[in-house]
Write a structure and sequence with these properties.
Chain lengths: 632, 312
């Protein structure tokens, strides 16, 4: 039988050597550790850093004898790498004092690897929260509220449109998920339908996905004596859009809040259709993080019912339709009209302050431009009336404050008075800022890892891997001698490949991920055991050493493919269905299978070829003692 | 060094009835544990909160229990682990209680009692999330089984595929049985271990089956019975089986020793899986394939194709 000689073509050898060298380079950054740094970011989303502050940062740090290791300017902010954690804490305070409140200064850790590595894109692996400490939250959005609000808003808009178009109607109410409008004439009803259809078109411009010709609403017409009734239900995809918008709004609000926290490299991501994942690495004060992120309230402005008779009747328990009753912060009841005139989404900012005239504490609200327009019309039409600012939460709803409208307000800056002290003003401002969610949400999963625990976990993971690895080296060397050593070298190369690959794709390493690295090593050796056993088999069968190597590798290949594919299937299932820690495990497992096949088959073969392949005559392979049955 | 100095093939198949009996007994035992005791599901699946706190100067767990009682959390479990400095607190899910508030409530109450307390780890999972994780886990197991059966049916033959998956499920049931018997906590990482075992132990069956197929193709074995063919295949892969498992097991033991609390049950599940994986691939997989009626003829088609491939 003719078998391929134990020589790789040159390209194969070059490929192997290159891949090993490249992997070595990309593995390197993981060994340099991280240096303390501070990160300066703007508070406004999408805002750019003013480069003039660079100078002031540099001079300030120089004056305080804090040496800057490196200054990195990025689109999202400035990173200042420092020498020690003491410097880091001092620098944070100093910089914050100098650059003021428009910027946030956060503590961060930056890779300590030399610049030439960073410049070729060789970065260390990301460490998961369980390895560096931090908080993970999963937030669940209450979409029923968003849907409800969508219908509420539709009702408000439609009323306005019908008025504008001068279409007479005598009654419009919300019934569950739909709107019912009554008309005197059939003609008016058809005209109203046209209005709805135009509304649908109007929304097409706003939301890209809506360019389809599907109607936005379903109409049901019923007639009774002298009444032409129109029932309008938003279609599924209209509701879906309400959801998408709500989710986007909540994501943005969370972004703003987390900016306020000053966390370096937070992760804020959508998960599924109604959830948001928030990960804050390095955050230690979980109570504060939760307070700021977890404010799950939604703010609405509603008109206060002021007719004393109606108010008294309501408080006595006879609440007329269209009214609701809530308590204020002192526990006193306030009767308000249903339907929000303005919602918290329109509030850009809320800050405590003092009135420039009388020095009393106030809260100043800043509205966005649609908010400005709405508020201007609202205040013009309702001077002298009271407006309630209501905070709606999952569990309770309260009236934060119910000020009287003094005059028309056009500039989008709203000053609320009536606070008894500055503490109250601060609290209310905080609550109002918190209310800019489109729909309430709650934390449904929390995973917090303290910083000391993170370090310990790294330590544990590395120890497990190293001791396991050492034991394998000893076992392989004793049992398979020279071939065992080659297997061990292939295994080490496998480890380097795996770490390099994880660094290149910037995977997040978790403790289960390290466990997967260790496990992959244990399993990867299987390939070399199999190959070595096959070679022994062939020698036992009386083949020459050269032929045994060749046939051994060839026969092992099919088996290796099948056995690795099945493990691969398991790994892929874990990637698909796993979440959090399990996913980290699975990604490493899958990559580990790929690298192990390459290194155990090609790399080990290359070494074997190098040591045996060129020799014309070999007496014996260094593959340990082979027991032969002599009775054949 | 050569561990297995066998002169003749070990007649594994002769013991197949015995092994079947053993397997059935273990299976029934595991199933009955699962049915009666169930799994001690971790909060990943049930929902709830786990807090790991540490006191540099140590603490009496009774103090913590008293504190928790004072804030109406009497149904919580408090236990030391490792040293008396580290305490694990388990809080069940409560209707109307926000999980975010719960852990803050506990940590502030504990800190009030003893200022040196440090929160090392908190895991809180809501009921719905837990349910979903459970469903996803079940789906993952199903997907893996189907995937493996399909792949093996394609590469070998359906009899081998069924035999391998039965040998595999056998291992999984036993792992679950152990976790049920000792009421070890079954969480997401243990699930990951179970799935890894599914992939890993099928490896074992594949290697043996591969030899069986190769033997069936050999001229010298043409007159042997199927059980002789299998005995030969198992005997000749024995050395590899032991070496591979030994090395994987070594790594897992290293994890068991150094991995700490989080990896402990993960490593335990792997240990059971690996040990029974050896047994099941030899004493369950092969007899199964035999009883399902594997013959030279079944494989003839595949064999013919494969031979063409190797020569061509």
């Amino acid at each position: 039988m003719n078998h391929q000689p134990n020589q790789f073509p040159r390209w194969k050898n070059i490929l192997i050597i290159t891949s090993v060298l490249l992997s070595l380079i990309y593995t390197l950054p993981n060994f340099y550790g991280e240096a303390p740094a501070v990160q300066i970011m703007t508070l406004e989303s999408g805002g750019k850093i003013d480069t003039s502050i660079l100078k002031s940062i540099e001079t300030t740090l120089k004056e305080s004898d804090i040496s800057i290791n490196r200054l990195i300017i990025e689109d999202i902010g400035i990173k200042v790498k420092l020498e020690s954690t003491d410097d880091q804490l001092k620098a944070k305070q100093l910089i914050q004092d100098v650059i003021g409140d428009n910027y946030v200064v956060a503590l961060n850790l930056l890779p300590n690897s030399p610049n030439w590595l960073t410049s070729i894109g060789a970065l260390p692996m990301h460490l998961g929260l369980d390895l560096r400490g931090g908080v993970h939250f999963l937030m669940q959005l209450d979409m029923s509220v968003a849907k409800n609000k969508g219908v509420d808003n539709l009702l408000i808009i439609v009323r306005k449109e019908l008025q504008k178009e001068k279409i007479p109607y005598f009654g419009s109410t919300k019934i569950d998920d739909s709107i019912q409008i009554k008309f005197k004439k059939e003609l008016d009803r058809s005209a109203a339908k046209a209005v709805f259809e135009s509304l649908g078109t109007g929304r097409k411009i706003q939301v890209k996905r809506l360019t389809k010709e599907t109607a936005a609403y379903t109409f049901v017409e019923t007639n009774s004596a002298n009444e032409f009734i129109l029932n309008v239900t938003p279609n599924t995809y209209t509701n879906e859009d309400t959801r998408t918008v709500a989710l986007k709004q909540n994501l943005e609000t969370l972004n703003n809040r987390i900016n306020e926290l000053g966390v370096a490299e937070p992760i804020i991501q959508q998960q599924g259709s109604d959830r948001i994942v928030v990960q804050l690495p390095g955050v230690q004060d979980t109570a504060k993080a939760k307070e700021i992120i977890g404010r799950t309230a939604m703010l609405e402005m509603r008109m206060v019912e002021e007719n004393p008779e109606v108010v008294n009747a309501s408080i006595a328990g006879k609440i007329p339709t269209g009214l609701e009753i809530f308590n204020n912060r002192n526990g006193d009841p306030v009767v308000v009209k249903k339907g929000a005139v303005l919602t918290g989404e329109r509030i850009v900012d809320a800050a405590p302050g003092v009135d420039s005239v009388n020095g009393r504490p106030v809260v100043t609200l800043r509205l966005d431009s649609p908010g400005k327009a709405i508020f201007k019309r609202l205040t013009r039409d309702n001077v002298g009336k009271r407006i309630a600012l209501i905070l709606i939460d999952k569990k309770m709803t309260e009236v934060v404050t119910a000020p009287r409208i003094q005059s028309e307000i056009g500039g989008g800056r709203v000053q609320i008075t009536g606070m008894s002290n500055s503490q109250e003003a601060t609290d209310i401002a905080l609550l109002l800022r918190a209310g800019s969610l489109a729909t309430p949400m709650e934390i449904v999963e929390e995973r917090t890892v303290g910083p000391s625990m993170g370090k310990e976990n790294i330590d544990r993971g590395i120890k497990s891997t190293i001791w396991g690895f050492m034991a394998i080296i000893v076992m392989m060397a004793v049992y398979y001698m020279g071939f065992g050593l080659v297997s061990v070298i292939a295994l080490s190369v496998n480890l380097i490949f795996l770490v390099a690959l994880l660094s290149i794709i910037q995977a997040t390493l978790t403790l289960p991920g390290i466990a997967a690295i260790a496990l992959t090593l244990g399993m990867a050796i299987d390939a070399n055991v199999l190959i070595n056993e096959r070679i022994r088999d062939e020698i036992r069968n009386g083949n020459t050493p050269q032929a045994s190597i060749s046939i051994g590798y060839e026969k092992a290949w099919g088996t290796l493919l099948d056995s690795n594919m099945t493990t691969m299937i398991a790994g892929l299932a874990l990637v698909m269905f796993g979440s959090g820690p399990v996913k980290g495990f699975a990604v490493v497992l899958v990559l580990g299978i790929l690298t192990s096949m390459y290194s155990s088959i090609w790399v080990s073969r290359a070494i074997i070829n190098y040591s045996y392949g060129r020799r014309r005559h070999i007496d014996k392979l260094s593959i340990g003692e082979i027991f032969k049955v002599n009775n054949n | 060094m050569e561990i297995f100095r066998v002169k003749q093939d070990i007649p594994f198949m002769k013991y197949s009835r015995l092994s079947a009996a053993i397997s059935i007994i273990i299976f029934v035992l595991s199933a009955s544990f699962l049915a009666t005791k169930g799994l001690n599901l971790g909060i990943d699946f049930t929902g709830g909160t786990i807090m790991e706190v540490s006191y540099p100067d140590g603490i009496d767990v009774q103090d913590i229990r008293d504190t928790l009682q004072s804030i109406d959390l009497e149904d919580s479990q408090v236990q030391n682990f490792g040293t008396e400095k580290d305490v694990l607190i388990k809080l069940p899910l409560k209707e109307g209680q926000s999980i975010a508030e719960l852990s803050e409530k506990v940590s502030s109450a504990l800190r009030l009692d003893n200022n040196s307390m440090q929160v090392r780890r908190v895991e809180s999972v809501g009921a719905q999330v837990g349910e979903e994780l459970y469903e996803d886990g079940a789906l993952a197991i199903l997907f893996v089984c189907l995937g493996i059966v399909l792949y093996l049916a394609m590469r070998f033959e359906w009899r081998f595929a069924i035999a391998a998956i039965i040998a595999n499920m056998h291992d999984v049931i036993i792992i679950l049985g152990f976790f049920s018997l000792f009421q070890w906590e079954f969480n997401l990482t243990v699930l990951a271990a179970v799935l890894a075992v599914l992939g890993y132990s099928v490896n074992e069956s594949v290697v043996v089956f591969d030899r069986v197929r190769e033997n069936l193709r050999k001229a010298s074995m043409r007159n042997s019975t199927i059980s002789e063919v299998m005995n030969n295949a198992i005997t000749r892969t024995m050395s590899r089986t032991i070496m591979t498992h030994l090395s994987t097991q070594t790594v897992v033991v290293s994890m068991l020793i150094f991995g700490g609390e989080i990896l402990h049950n993960f490593a335990l599940a792997l240990t059971i899986g690996i040990l029974f994986g050896i047994y099941s691939s030899i004493m369950v997989g092969c007899p199964m394939a035999m009883w399902l009626g594997t013959t030279q003829k079944n494989l003839a088609k595949n064999v013919a194709e494969d031979t063409n491939k190797t020569t061509g």
